[in-house]
């Protein structure tokens, strides 16, 4: 006797007519026509069932704070950083917790059950650190929240940042972060990469650095990050986030850089919303997109994920926590409109993101956690096209969110009474 069976599911790899059996919060079986009974049966009716969405790059300490204490009038990265500096002194732990919990509610409704959030440690109070550690405990039953110690103002540019970062790690923050391109000089940026990677190596931590988030083609800290990864034996444990300078680099240099990144097994996280609206601000025309070279990095075998980065905060005043919206934007910005390329963007907000977070028990195979999402779509491409409704969101075998299928009624002579935006799967 199983606790739950999801019948007649279609999986992201193309398998159809699959049943998923759940017992004790784990997936017990994945096979066609599962011969078993269960306390609860959900008929997927041939719709797509996927492991949960994963946001590999987010800033939960700032989320939903848009307009406080004022709006980002220019819409630029630097004004956003300045605005965050104005907001920090008036933040309260209670307000950060309240906004973060509200965002986690949005996330669950969207089938987003794992988030890696950077948390600013350049505040002697470590207010945001304590707030998000509290949030992490509160949401643990339904959402995996991984925290990155992020020196927003630079570890050398901000007095005492190294000590504050170490203290944040001691209190329970998971990952070492950095922002080398925001240090005062290129040399200090390189030194920060070395110092932060050494801290991570000494403590057995993962690394996730904001790296080269600039239009400057000479901002090449990812080169140092890859080299330090190899030197310290951190292959597969280090991520470079944003890497927007790669959009402006010449092809010859990139032809050398990407193999170095591959040697380091460096993870890459692009953030299409932020990269599109914050980069290229000094350009007239032609105007750069600013997003890193996602197709080329994927082709080289690197694990590439996509993040939302910001939702309604000083840097980005839009967003709703929908990772299908992120994938949809990436398809367009990176010109990944081939069928395999679009499917790769779906993988970048599911499996690839989970791999970079080193999530335990993620996936739809026997033994994995029984976490899954039933989408009102046939396949990953249709899910991206429609930003498909999350019909059921399941955590450890329990339905924790659900929504009705989208349907519009018509009153048109000679036409159907209702319309569905779903179409047969693309060949």
TrEMBL record:
Entry coiled-coil feature ranges: none
Gene Ontology terms: biological process: cytosine catabolic process
Claim: Hydrolase is one of the keywords in the record: yes
InterPro entries assigned: Amidohydro_3, Metal-dep_hydrolase_composite, Metal_Hydrolase, Metallo-hydrolase_Enzymes
Domain Amidohydrolase: 40-400
Pfam families per record: Amidohydro_3
GO terms assigned for molecular function: cytosine deaminase activity; isoguanine deaminase activity; metal ion binding
Keyword entries, A-Z: Hydrolase, Metal-binding
Gene3D superfamilies: Metal-dependent hydrolases, Urease, subunit C, domain 1
The protein's name: Amidohydrolase family protein
Keyword Hydrolase in record: yes
């Amino acid at each position: 006797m199983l606790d739950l069976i999801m019948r007649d599911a279609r999986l992201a790899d193309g398998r159809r007519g699959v049943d998923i059996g759940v017992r004790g919060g784990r997936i017990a079986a994945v096979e066609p026509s599962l011969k078993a009974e269960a306390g609860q049966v959900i008929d997927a009716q041939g719709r797509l069932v996927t492991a949960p969405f994963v946001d590999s790059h987010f800033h939960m300490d700032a989320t939903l704070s848009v307009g406080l204490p004022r709006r980002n009038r220019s819409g630029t990265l630097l004004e956003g950083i300045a605005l965050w500096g104005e907001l920090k002194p008036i933040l309260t732990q209670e307000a950060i917790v309240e906004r973060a919990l509200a965002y986690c509610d949005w996330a669950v409704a969207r089938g987003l059950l794992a988030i890696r959030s950077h948390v600013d440690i350049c505040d002697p109070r470590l207010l945001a650190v304590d707030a998000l550690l509290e949030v992490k405990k509160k949401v643990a039953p339904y959402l995996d929240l991984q925290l990155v110690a992020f020196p927003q103002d630079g570890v050398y540019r901000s007095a005492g940042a190294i000590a504050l970062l170490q203290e944040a790690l001691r209190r329970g923050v998971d990952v070492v972060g950095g922002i080398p391109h925001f240090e005062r000089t290129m040399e200090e940026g390189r030194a920060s990469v070395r110092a932060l990677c050494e801290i991570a190596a000494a403590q057995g931590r993962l690394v996730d650095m904001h790296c080269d988030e600039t239009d400057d083609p000479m901002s090449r800290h990812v080169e140092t990050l890859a080299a330090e990864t190899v030197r310290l034996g951190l292959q597969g444990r280090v991520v470079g986030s944003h890497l927007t300078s790669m959009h402006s680099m010449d092809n010859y240099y990139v032809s050398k850089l990407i193999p170095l990144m591959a040697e380091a097994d460096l993870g890459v996280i692009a953030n299409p919303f932020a990269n599109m609206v914050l980069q290229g601000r000094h350009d007239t025309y032609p105007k750069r997109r600013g997003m890193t070279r996602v197709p080329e990095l994927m082709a080289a075998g690197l694990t590439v994920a996509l993040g939302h980065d910001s939702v309604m905060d000083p840097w980005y005043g839009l967003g709703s926590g929908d990772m299908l919206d992120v994938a949809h934007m990436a398809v367009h910005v990176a010109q990944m409109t081939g069928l395999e390329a679009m499917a790769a963007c779906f993988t970048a907000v599911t499996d690839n993101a989970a791999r970079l977070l080193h999530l335990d028990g993620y996936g739809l195979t026997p033994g994995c956690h029984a976490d899954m999402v039933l989408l009102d779509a046939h396949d990953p491409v249709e899910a991206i096209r429609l930003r498909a409704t999350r019909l059921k969101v399941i955590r450890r075998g329990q339905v924790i969110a659900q929504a009705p299928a989208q349907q519009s009624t018509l009153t048109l002579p000679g036409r159907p009474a209702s319309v569905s935006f779903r179409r047969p799967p693309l060949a």
